[in-house]
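Could you join me in thinking about how sequence relates to backbone shape in a protein? Label the sequence line and the structure token line clearly, so we can match residues to local backbone shapes. Once you have written the record down, we can walk along the chain together.
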Amino acid sequence: MRRKLICAAAATLIVTPAAALDLPARKPGLWEIKTMMEGGFQPTHVAQHCIDAETDKLMNTMGADMRKEACSKQDVRKDGATYVIESVCKFGPMTSTSHGVITGDFNSAYTLKMTSKRDGGPNFPGMSNMPGMPADGTSKMTIEAKWLSACTADQKPGDMIMAGGRKVNIHDIQSMQNRMQDMMKNMPKGMYPKN
């Protein structure tokens, strides 16, 4: 159960804009992060993040090595009052090209609208037939984040509170990620998965 919770929290980080690239720090405290996929083929996911400067930065840098290896393009630029994110990443035979726009601010509330297009890779049975999942591999996601308050007395910086009140800390996820990376480094060469 704990491993499942850590994996769900890691997935939250992947789609959190602060985890995407080099963006301004968020205001310390408790943030609500709501993730919605267009078409309704995935339910809306709501989580809360209790952060301070150190854990916000940690959330920003988690997965940076993986992105560095996989992504030929990772750009973020300020365009007036918005931030524009562009990325091209290759995972095995699949290439994902994404464009996102962030509006709002990192002190009270911001919104990320992201469009991604997948080319190549496995064609999962039924994926093109799923409601809201176009056959061309394009997906649209919206993340709405808002600052709620200071963290509560039973929360510590780095806590991510999932649906149902389940909680995991970013430091637990980082430890698990480090163990997995060490395990991959120590695998005999013939055991690496082939693309």
